[in-house]
Design a protein that fits this description.
globular, single chain, 81% helix, mainly alpha
Length: 295
């Protein structure tokens, strides 16, 4: 039974990361819209879509149970702030031709998971895991020294999504109810933003042409599916395994950025990627050794 649960978790994780890997292609079509406008529409339409699914499944009692557990609702609100911040940074990166930087951030996420395990969950690192962390630190140092700036897009994407996975893993709420509550928690911020923009003569949820409106509505749907799959994966897999599967997402983003969008790849940044890939290889080897070791 446990093995079946793990296999299901791997399947959910693969589904989530492959969809996320192709996100730049989808959201590139919305770069004429302000990132916060796109985020607000994503949150609203995801909330509506998931609400419909909850109604069809008759699962509102599970949502009500969370409202009766303040700690769970508070944790999901924190998760919403983290994933919402991650969305906004990613949307900004796509709109400003920084998909290479975003892929670097998602490559860093598994190593962020290692550090979160060390400092938050009080896990111990073995020698190979310390070496993988050292490679990640060297990659960041290379960015600062050779490119003259801190890779803030990469670091914030890695930090927000890594922490989101940690928080979401500690909330025993089913994926559908959890996602609806997360998007619900985003709505007050999105509503305040929409009212502020309306005072300045800009309507966040209207005045779009038909194609743009369809893409914005679709953004809520394509947002919901991988998040539900990811939440299902977090309930079945450890953080380390989730981090391993996440390589798929930044690899697809990297290929999209360089080969499809034609973003420049500086030699200096290629060194950063090489260091990250070395760190991930060492980290993967460490996990493989743990997997093969008898219980």
């Amino acid at each position: 039974m446990q093995r079946q649960s793990q296999l299901a978790g791997i399947g959910f994780g693969l589904l989530a990361y492959v969809i996320w890997g192709f996100f730049p292609l989808y959201f590139r079509q919305l770069t004429h819209i302000l990132p916060m406008d796109v985020l607000s529409n994503r949150a609203v339409w995801a909330c509506v879509f998931v609400g419909i699914l909850l109604t069809l499944r008759g699962s509102w009692s599970k949502v009500a149970a969370v409202f009766r557990t303040p700690r769970q609702f508070a944790m999901l609100t924190l998760a919403a702030l983290l994933v919402g911040s991650n969305w906004l940074i990613f949307l900004w990166a796509v709109a400003n031709q920084q998909v290479v930087a975003s892929s670097l951030g998602y490559f860093l996420t598994p190593l962020i998971n290692v550090l979160l395990g060390l400092f938050v969950l009080k896990e111990r690192l073995n020698r190979l895991e310390w070496i993988s962390v050292a490679f990640a630190i060297a990659a960041i140092a290379n960015e600062i020294i050779t490119l003259g700036s801190l890779p803030w897009v990469s670091l914030l994407l890695a930090a927000t999504f890594g922490t989101y996975g940690l928080v979401r893993k500690q909330v025993p709420v089913d994926p559908l109810s959890g996602l609806w509550l997360e998007t619900l928690a985003m709505l007050p911020i999105c509503g305040i933003y929409a009212l502020w923009q309306a005072d300045n003569g800009h309507l966040v949820f209207a005045t779009h042409d038909t194609a743009t409106a369809a893409l914005l509505i679709g953004a809520g749907i394509v947002t919901a599916f991988p998040l539900m799959a990811f939440a299902a994966a977090t309930q079945r897999l450890g953080l380390a395994t989730l981090g391993m599967l996440m390589y798929i997402n930044p690899t697809l983003q990297f290929v999209t950025a360089v080969w499809i969008f034609g973003e420049p790849m500086q030699t200096e940044r290629l060194i950063s990627f090489a260091l990250i890939w070395l760190g991930l290889f060492v980290y993967s080897w460490s996990l493989w050794q743990k997997f093969r070791r008898p219980a």
